[in-house]
């Protein structure tokens, strides 16, 4: 028995999605098996309208021979709206063993045809309630139903943001619905199952309606009413009775409206709540609403409805304050211990009219006072006015703050003490599934990983924002594209990026240009910079690589193509991009005085990304089977490469722009080859070393810097960069107490002062893109691009070095859990690898000899699940099927000795005297490669063969030490 099971069945990434409008939903599943090397040979997938009756299914694939288990499209009869479909899956493995059926799962449709939306948009009568007034609107509707309700759904959306209530209770757990889309082109609606909240007699639906992104303050220019100047709601309540009849309650002019205790609510500025004017019971039956105002039907609202695409925004965690203290300035301040995004929930017992004010900030200044300067115009202030009726509880409804510290004013003390236990932090972000784990033997690197994750949580709030605290919080395209691969390791971001990319496509200009931010709320003309607009290509490709989402790739293809063609039209030479405004290497440390843009030539950067996007577009055309475009963009890519070398590489093979970012882009985007590539890698390494192992890169170069080093023979330098803890470095901020990623390398300077107030976020995830290198290089988990979604896994950890002796990463891929965990001791190297069923992996064991490797205690070639073992230079390459594997092999002590010798030889080559002697006996010898030691071996061979008698004490000593190194130890070099 193999205990073959089908588990974790999902539809459109989600478990039992309620309210989708996809015409051909895609089903995915995972496989469990106790047998190593399990692969799927075939599947069967059935869909039924009844949960327990699959005898006559609506659709049955029958026995379908295929190893595919992701994104299998429903191809049965046309789906009907507002209908639940049940499905189940079984599979056969490669030996013909058949699984049981999976547990029955379901999806439920909302409105397949957008024309089925019958509810009208309503808003408070503008003659009675000023549409421009600050208080949050309350809307209500009383209604009665018949007996024996079978099921009930509410389909609702609103502008700006709304909260739905039914018979005195909140409906669902969602916050800030309907989220932020390009409202004039697309607006999401939500589906709620309210069967259990309805009464068979009287009922009340209530809606709270705030400004949100639709008409509230947005951008640092204090723009308002960007999408419209009125708030509105549209809603269907669809009830099905046990007798088969149906009833609908819709928004219309029979609803009533008022204002309530939320006097003010803005995303940037906070909320003011006066509990004294609460209308108790307003959302329940029997409330007297005779003094409420009327509503009117309006046609001035969005009409392109789409069902909720991404995961909703919710409270995902609660944090208790770590301490409360009094600052030197005399302020009472709560420390949450973590820079978070969300809100404070408080309890208080106070006299009526007591005003409690909470002011939120990220850091303290060097004197220990709370610091608000970097918020710019964002007030991040919450005010609660007590009604004086026992213990009261409150948390803001329609705003969020980015903060670690909270200044508290007006809170009554209890017996002379501040009751910290009456405050709790509620963490708010898009409720994505956590998929990634990463840890090392280095505590600072572990904190860096936590900072990356918290930065993502704080900024993935419906859109991928740049920062969550100041008067910005916009979906900057450049930030999203540099971070997306890291993001998709830490969380399942398929739905999140699907929704955001659809907005990118919707907001893309007719000429193919891409706005700086999505949704686009910036002035005309602020768009289409390289590395920002390239999000149109890089993001859908990355989602495809990680999740195998070919449909999204196809959906975005024209957008991708339009961006590349936009670039192509920009200058006189179609193979270069050297025109227009460019943001360049944003915040590069090699920038001129008073400039945000780094020293790397902007036309080099723009042409490099032009090449990269063109290559990805070509690869997309290959995946989608667009043969003519494959030919077209292959030719364009070749032309860009040629002209890049003509324009930016000198006759002597040197890059014209001598910056870290220039080297990085040329190497990582494969723009140079041969001797030019070797020189670029060498000079990048030299540049880092000469800078005392510090970086000078900005937003463009930083994400790729360590990849450029590790993949070109300088991994040791990359590790030293990671572990550097003085400014500028990833770990520097941690030494200053950071719990998220900073916008600037020196947001807090070594002397405790701050970078300029005008742009200094302490929660800005872009530099957290180093996570991608940590997961793919240090831990070694990567994907074979020919078989996306980790159907074929690459495990190639970079093992070695005294600073990091253990690394573990685990990733919940769509096929199941992948793990790579290595540990070094004085005696051996241990590598644990987990591969999920229906995938295979290529594992590369570094510094290993095939005959010395054991797996789970036996010779590797005799181990079950091992498909092949080969020796490739210093690597043992193992092809494996699914299962858990434990590789162990000797940690050759001679390695450390040879690396030490190699380092000393490098030093001797810097000395003119010893360099001359070495070149005499080994003509043309150049600086050794620390990872290959080829020149060390050359000297050893010369000495061993008796061809040279080197008359120099230091060199003689090196030769003697080399002769003590065993041949086995040299083999792994």
Overview of this structure, please?
It is a single chain. By secondary structure, this protein is an alpha+beta fold. It has six domains: 5-109, Sandwich (Immunoglobulin-like); 117-307, Sandwich (Jelly Rolls), CATH 2.60.120; 313-430, Galactose-binding domain-like (Jelly Rolls, Sandwich); 443-652 and 704-775, Alpha/alpha barrel (Glycosyltransferase); 779-891, Sandwich (Maltose phosphorylase, domain 3), CATH 2.60.420.10; 894-971, no CATH class. Helices cover 24% and strands 27% of the residues. The protein contains 19 helices and 47 strands. The strands form nine sheets. Strands 20, 21, 24, 25, 26, 27, 30, 31, 32 and 33 form a ten-stranded mixed β-sheet that branches. The chain has a seven-stranded antiparallel β-sheet with strand order 10-22-19-11-16-13-14. Helix 7 (602-624) packs antiparallel against helix 8 (627-648), helix 7 (602-624) runs parallel beside helix 9 and helix 15 (893-909) runs antiparallel to helix 18. The longest helix has 23 residues, at 602-624. The protein is globular, with a radius of gyration of 31 Å. Residues 929-934 have low confidence and may be disordered. It catalyses: Hydrolysis of terminal non-reducing alpha-L-rhamnose residues in alpha-L-rhamnosides.
